[in-house]
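From the shared-data thread, chain only:
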Amino acid sequence: MTNSIKDIEEADCILITGSNTSECHPVIADLVRRAVQRKGAKLIVVDPRRIDLAGLANIFLQARPGTDVAWINGMMNVIWKEGLWDRRFVEERTENLESLIPVIEKYTPSLVQEITGISAPVLERAARMYGSASRASILYAMGLTQHTTGTDNVRSIANLAMLTGNLGKRGSGVNPLRGQNNVQGACDMGGLPGLYPGYQPVSNPEAQSKFQKAWGVKLSPNPGLCMTEAVDKMAQGEIKALYVMGENPLMSDPDLNHLKKAFERLDFLMVQDIFLNETAQMAHVVFPAALFAEKEGTVTNTERRVQRVRKAVRPPGGCLEDWRIISGLSHAMGFSMNYLSAEEIFREISRLTPSYAGMSYARLERKGLQWPCPSADHPGTPILHVNKFARGKGLFHPVEYFPPAERPDEQYPFVLTTGRYYYHYHTGTMTRRSKALNMLCPEGFVEIHPGDAARLSLEDGDKVRLKSRRGAIEIRLKKAERCPQGILFVPFHFREAMVNLLTNSALDPVAKTPELKVCAVALEKV
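Structure, as tokens:
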């Protein structure tokens, strides 16, 4: 997030897109409600489904899945033509506006209506509401990024924020809501194939030299593979071993039939987790790991805040902290990691990662710090880009609309989108073990508009077969007005109805993120 969570309550206008915030980030959703109900903030919600916050919104834009670039360009079209853009901010703090304008001028409200299904007058109202706000905040999540155009979607959101001067001040910003605890921290620590900790490129000779000296080894300047690329290499027999930690790809990744075949070709699979999940059940070796309350360390949350985690109970049996397992494996393979504690590791992080350089356990003892925090006397950074951007001036990226990789046709007439449901979390590794949560939501379901259900002579509770070009599942039907006609929704928590058997593994060419939010499917009664 460019801003802090508490900034949400200071916004005059909040734009939420690609985020079912009430069900996936309920604490942040409460802040949104307070901002609207107590402080009079305007709320714009954009989503294919009429999610809970749509009922609170001043304007709800029900866009077709995968059409985000079009409606964002359409909003900028109105803001530009009606003079709602921030001339001073754009002229002083940005560049390349001359390339953006010819593109957004093409996306008239009438064209956007044709592409997205959003009526032109409603789009114009939303653009005026966002463009005229003195402080406007954008919140988004994986509904914006899990597309073949995910990078373009995020660039478009950044264009919109820069055009209206909504960066570098309170109550504004471009604010991704991270999907899991410490996803931000994992990225910060080099959990990306082309980066060292602190987003230092492996191809940068200075960064390479620094980490070679610190670790005493020769390091490759070549980026590694992301998971979606690695799967194809596994299927081709080029990758023969895999180490999976705290992840359940055989539930969460797309095109699971292809993925399972790739896993079966491995010579060796090692899994490190707190439960024997679907992926661990295929492993040759499973390391039982300590969970969050059984270990010391830090996490970094969605607002870039680094916080201490303290051991509350002893881990059961032979469970170990993740760092101890990794260090032990490294030692056995010939590279000694002679750490004595999590704090010692954090001291190395501070030494090698500029944005964490001013942090220590002593400073984090009472209160978390937001990076960048470059020195021991620095208070942390609640808001990014206050005076300038990291690159100097903000760069406008003109972005054209491209449709999803797969669209409905006669054989597969519905569009399927996936997501989370309030009572369960991710692949259900933890929540499906809760009797109370399983009583509230015991099985998977497919949401369908009542009109589509009537046309197919289907009723609530009917078992249906849902199929795509990649696989099929059987699942219970649930009629839901919040799904528009032609769109189906399935949560991905349920191993008995693995929706990712159906989803498309087509990738964003830049981020390599799969298009989990759009695929073409057919539906029939069992």
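The chain has a mean pLDDT of 95.
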